[in-house]
Write a structure and sequence with these properties.
This protein is an alpha+beta fold and 79 residues long. The chain has helices at 3-23, 53-68; strands at 26-34, 38-45, 74-77. Helix 2 (53-68) links the parallel strand 2 (38-45) and strand 3.
Length: 79
């Protein structure tokens, strides 16, 4: 998968999860994809102060991204 294709797949994954984040006053932005397997995102809005944002990142965001792009190994939130 090319870098452009990978970026497209990760963006599709974020679009799938975004409505759930938006419903709680949050959002997410793709910051970068490094080495084709490490994704950096920024949780925004209400997600920044939410006590369960790490669970959302792992159970929601990371799982969804890996469904679209199985080669992704890690997803981290950049503050």
């Amino acid at each position: 998968m090319t870098t452009e294709e990978l970026t497209t797949e990760v963006q599709k994954a974020l679009e799938e999860i975004r409505p759930f984040l938006n419903s709680d006053g949050g959002d997410i932005t793709l910051i970068s994809i490094e080495e084709g397997k490490h994704v950096k995102v920024r949780l925004e809005g209400a997600c920044t102060s939410c006590s369960v944002n790490q669970m959302t990142l792992r159970a929601g965001v990371e799982t969804t991204i890996k469904k679209f792009a199985p080669q992704i190994e890690t997803v981290v939130n950049i503050l």
